[in-house]
Each structure stands twice: as structure tokens, then as C-alpha cells.
Fold:
Amino acid sequence: MRKTIAILVLFLLILGCSAPETQVPGATSSKGSAGPVKENALVLEIQKLETSTPAIETFTLDLLMDAYNAGELSEEEYALQSAYNLFEPEKLDAKFKTDSTVVDHPTFTLMKIAHEFDSYSSETQSKLEKYILSSDDPNSYFYNDEPSEEVN
Structure:
């Protein structure tokens, strides 16, 4: 989608510019007269870019957001799957798993979960609570019961 939009914007910019023209060998004019058709050099460059540009990587967060915006995920399901994506990917629904190695930053997700927490069902609250508890709470996902080593 991003690639398509970028190409479309570039194409529209090109249409507004006058650039040197090149002839396409063996082509005939659309006006019926014989002779080569003149193609804008920038259009040819766009065609080269379309075939050489690598695919844009798909991220789990994008898939989750698309599903939520399409009404396929409730607010609670979105929060739960977002938390799983960040902290327990083995629990993430398979349809949202990607090959991306990029790790999403948890701050926004945790703030949203904490802000909306009281509106979630008790079942969802019990699944999400460990992610928003203080790290010194033994029930926190982030709790470390091993004493930290002091650095001298």
C-alpha cells in the first residue's frame, strides 16, 4: 500500500513536469501516423522502480491495527493481542504473526492498556494485569525475584 501511494505521488509529480522525451523503438503513434511513440523518460524510470523496489515488510502491529479498524478485533482483543505481540509472541494468534524481526516499542501499548483497563471484562483484565503492574509486584510480568548484583 505504501509503495503504491509513493509511486502514485511520484507519477502525479512527473505529469506536472516537462522532461526530455525518449523514443520507444518499434512503437507506433496513437494518432494513427507511423513512427515512434515518444515516452516521458521519467515514466520509464517509474516502471523500472516498480519492478526493482523490494516488497515492504509487514509488521504484526500493522496487521493488528488493520483488523481492529476493519472491525475484526474488539478493543479488548486488540489490547490482548498487542500485549502478546510484545511480551509473549507464542500466545499471539497465528494470523497476526509475521517474519518481521522488528520489535514494537511497548510504551504506547502499555499506556493504552492501563488507560482502558477498567473498561475490559474481568477475564481480559486477569490476562492483561501482569503487564501493567509495577515491576516490584510479584504478580508482574516484569518481576525479578533474584537480587540484583551491585556494580562497584
The helical segments are 2-16, 41-52, 60-69, 75-87, 106-116, 122-132. The longest strand covers residues 21-24. Confidence is low (pLDDT under 50) at residues 18-29, 33-37. Strands lie at 21-24, 37-40.
